[in-house]
Amino acid sequence: MTIEFETPKPIENARFLLQTVADNMMRPVSRQFDEEEHTIPFSYIEFMHSAMRAMGGGSAGSLAPGEEKKPEDPNKPKRAPIAYQLLANQLEMLSWGDVGMYLVTPGGGLGAAAVQAAGSPEQKAKFLARFNEEKPTFAAMCMTEPHAGSDTSAIRTRAVLDEKTNEWVINGEKIFVTAGDKSFTERPEFGKGFLVVWASIDPSAGRAGMRSFVVEAGTPGVKITKLEHKMGIRVSDTASISFDNVRVPFENILGSPTVEKTTTGFKGAMATFDATRPLVAATGVGVARAALEEVKKMLAEQGVTIRYGLPRQKLTAVERDVVDMEIMLKSAWLMVLKAVWMADNKQPNALESSMSKVKAGDVVTKITQKAVELMGPLGYSREYLLEKWMRDAKITDIYEGTGQINRLVVARQVLGYSGSELR
Q1: Where are the domains of the chain?
Q2: Is 400 noted as a catalytic residue in this protein?
Q3: Per the residue annotation, which of 173, 216, 319, 400 is the catalytic one?
Q4: H-helix or E-strand containing 12?
Q5: Sorting pLDDT into bands at 50, 70 and 90, what band is 281?
C-alpha cells in the first residue's frame, strides 16, 4: 500500500478559489461585522451561493466542485473518496478568512448533516435539494436545552403523535442554535430553510426514545425568543427557540417512529457529530493559522526572523514560542485529516473525530492567546485582528460537544467503557 502526501488536485483548486474569497470578501470586512453583531452579510452570502451553484456544490450545501460524469476506464484505478477531506480544507480556508462569516455561508450545516445521516432517500431528496435552488437556504440543528447542555440524552422536548391528524406535536425549548434565525425566519432573500429538532417520543425509553424532526421555516408555534450576544463569531446568529404545540407531518421524523430497546435514535445524533466534529476542528485550525501567520508577518516587519534548524537552546524565547505554535498547528491539522479520511472511507471514526475536536480546540486557544501575548499592546489593540481571533477561537472548544465531553468520548473509546460506566 502506497501512502501519498500530495494534495489532490480538486483540493488544491478549491483552496486557491477560497483563498481569493477569504482575501477579498472576508478579511476586509471582518472587523466591521464583528462590531455590527448579527448584521447579515448579504453580499457574501449571495456570492457564495452563486459560486457554489456554478461549481455544482453538493445537495447539503457543500463547496465541493462538481465533476462531469465520464465513463469509467476499467483499467484505471478508482480515485479514493475525498469529500470530507475536501470540505475540511475548504472550511479551514474560509475560517482563516473569518470563522464567523464562514458560519453564515449558505448551506445545510448540522441540519443537513442530520438529514444525510438519518434521513430516508425520500427525505434527502426533498430537503437537501433546497440548497441547490435559486435562493440561498439555511438549516440548523436544535439539540441543546437550558437544562440539558452536554448531556444531550437528558432533553425534555417532547414529540407526541396525534393519531387523528397523523401529525407530530412538538413542545419544548432549545438554546444556542447556530444559524437558527436564518434557518427559520422567512426572508425574501432566502429560500425555505428548516430546523432539525431533537425530541423524545417516549421519555421512559431514555436515549432509545430520542428522534429528530424536520420543522420547516414559518411553521406555526415556533418562536425565535432570543439572539445571543457573544464574545466571538459575532456575525453568526445563535438563537433560542421555543416550540409550542408545533405540528409537523408524520413523514418529517428522521428514522423509525417505533421505539425499541436499542439506542438507534441517539446513535443517529452521534453519527452526525462523528462526521462534523472534524470539520469544526478544521475551522479552529483555520483561525489558529491566521493568528500564527499574522504574528510571523508582524515579527518580520520588526526584523525578527525565525532561525529554523538551530538547536532549541540557541533560539530566542520568541523563536521557541513560534516554533511551538507551528508544531501545535501541524499536529492538530494531521489529526483532522486522519478523521476526515476515515469518514470518506466509511470507517468508524468516533475516537478520531473527538480527538481531532479536542486537539483543535486546545491548539487554537493556545495559539491565539500566545499571539496576543507576543505582540503585547498591539495584540490587545483593536487595530489588529489578533484580539478578535482570540475571541473567535474559544468557541471551537465549546460547540458540537465541549472539550470535556469529547475527552470523555475518547476515554470511553480507549478504555472500552459505556456512557453509564464512565461519566
Answers
A1: 9-69+77-107, 111-263, 266-415
A2: yes
A3: 400
A4: helix 9-21
A5: very high
